[in-house]
Amino acid sequence: MGIARSAYDATWGRLFASMYDRALAGSEDAGMRDRRRDLVAAASGRTIELGAGTGLNFEHYPGAVEELLLTEPFPPMANRLRERTGGAATVIEAPAESLPIPDASADTVVATLVLCTVDDLPATLAEVARVLKPGGRLLFAEHVRSDDPSLARWQDRLERPWKFVAHGCRCNRDTLAAIEASPLEIEAVERGRIPKAAAIVEPLVVGSAVRPL
């Protein structure tokens, strides 16, 4: 399995990283960029972004962010992230399930279009709760399992091929339910759609959750 994964990452994974910004350009131009900007505007203090990819959120972080740590487990993505940030943020190559960050040391954690890709979502959310200070916030914008039964069935049917093509993305993952079941408490949530996206990844939730005091 490890050999197969390495071969996949060395071929399609690298190509996926090189195409990522172009693949998302239509959605970004049609409104997703504004969603990112509005979401990360609430970040402050010591901020950690999970699976920062190529750094599409980077330009939107406000001056209230005192220190920015960008985590990205896939080296080709991490390399592009370093190029985009030019040393203005710390890039950490680590999976979201195992962050090399001390307990209760972050004011904000940001996750955008990444929780669909983590191997263990409950473990990831437990890590978020661990690294956040009491009262710290998770800011999220994630595509989720549809509440339309017909579309949800298509998400289930296409989950495996989509996961292969989209480098680990689970199009049918009920991320909001996982956050609700985590140690975090939902503070606000809004449902919407990712513009100009494939139907199976259109349903979107944007919101925040806090680590209880």
At a glance:
The protein is 39% helix and 24% strand. The protein has 213 residues and is of the alpha/beta class.
Task: Describe the model.
The protein has 213 residues and is of the alpha/beta class. The chain has a single domain (2-210), classed as Vaccinia Virus protein VP39 (Rossmann fold), CATH 3.40.50. Helices cover 39% and strands 24% of the residues. It has helices spanning 2-40, 75-85, 121-131, 149-165, 175-180, and strands at residues 45-49, 65-71, 90-92, 106-112, 132-143, 185-193, 203-210. The protein has a seven-stranded mixed β-sheet with strand order 3-2-1-4-5-7-6. The radius of gyration is 16 Å and the shape is globular. The termini are far apart. The mean pLDDT is 94.
Number of helices, counting only DSSP H or I runs of 4 residues or more = 5
- What is the count of structural domains? 1
Shape: globular
Give the terminus-to-terminus CA distance: 42 Å
Describe the main β-sheet briefly: 7 strands, mixed
Mean pLDDT: 94
CATH top level? Alpha Beta
The number of distinct β-strands equals: 7
* Uncertain residue segments: none
Give the CATH superfamily. Vaccinia Virus protein VP39
Which percent range fits the helix content? 25-40%
The multimeric state of the shown protein is single chain
Structural class: alpha/beta
Taken as a percent bin, the fraction of beta residues is 15-25%
Q: Supply the CATH architecture.
A: 3-Layer(aba) Sandwich
CATH topology tier name: Rossmann fold
**Over the alpha carbons, how many angstroms does the gyration radius reach?**
16 Å
Order of helices and strands: HEEHEEHEHHEE
Strand order of the largest sheet: 3-2-1-4-5-7-6
